[in-house]
Every structure is written in structure tokens, then in C-alpha cells.
Specification:
This protein is mainly α. The chain has two domains: 61 residues, Winged helix-like DNA-binding domain superfamily/Winged helix DNA-binding domain (Arc Repressor Mutant, subunit A, Orthogonal Bundle), CATH 1.10.10.10; 41 residues. Helix 1 packs across helix 2, helix 1 packs across helix 3 and helix 2 packs across helix 3. The longest helix is centred in the last third of the chain and has 35 residues.
Length: 103
């Protein structure tokens, strides 16, 4: 199970990476050095930093709000498909029950 970090710790770690980014060749190398010092996985820190840069419009990509909206729409779509399947099954069942040729 993935380890959950408090939001405050995430934000502080991302701020630290962004503040020291000019000292490293890339975000990846900065996260490789800073992550272990903070007790955070380098890849987790890199993903948080990347998302923070997207949210700040520094790099292209889907913002956190857009990603949440997509997630919500996908869940709603899945629920509607399930409801649709139930309604199809029910209509088939009742159509057979009402079929006069069946008696």
C-alpha cells in the first residue's frame, strides 16, 4: 500500500525542489538528491514537482483541477453505463413476459 504524506510536507518538499532547481541539471536529479534527505521517494517527489509546475502553468499538461474533473466524469460515465445495462436487461425481461406468442 502506498505511503500517504501530509499535504503540508508535500508542499514543503516541492517548494524545496523548485527553490534549488537551478543547482541541478534537471528536476529528476534534484529529486534524486533532495528526496532521500526528506525521507520521500524520489519518483513521488518528481511527480509532485511536475504537477506543481503544471498547475503554475510553467509546463504544459492537465492541471490538478482538470484531472479531478476528468476522474469525476469517468466515474459518472461508468455509473451511467452500469445503469444502462440494468435498464436494457430489465426491458428484455419484461418484453419476454409481455410477448403474446409465449403463452
Amino acid at each position: 500500500m502506498p505511503k500517504r504524506y501530509p499535504l503540508e510536507q508535500r508542499e514543503r518538499a516541492v517548494r524545496m525542489v523548485l527553490d534549488h532547481l537551478d543547482e541541478y541539471r534537471s528536476v529528476y536529479s534534484a529529486c534524486q538528491v533532495i528526496g532521500p534527505k526528506l525521507g520521500i521517494g524520489a519518483e513521488s517527489l518528481r511527480n509532485w514537482t511536475k504537477q506543481a509546475q503544471i498547475d503554475a502553468n510553467e509546463v504544459p499538461g492537465a492541471t490538478s483541477a482538470e484531472r479531478q474533473r476528468i476522474k469525476d466524469l469517468e466515474r459518472e460515465n461508468r455509473e451511467l453505463k452500469e445503469a444502462n445495462e440494468i435498464l436494457k436487461s430489465a426491458s428484455i425481461f419484461f418484453a419476454r413476459e409481455l410477448d403474446p406468442r409465449r403463452r
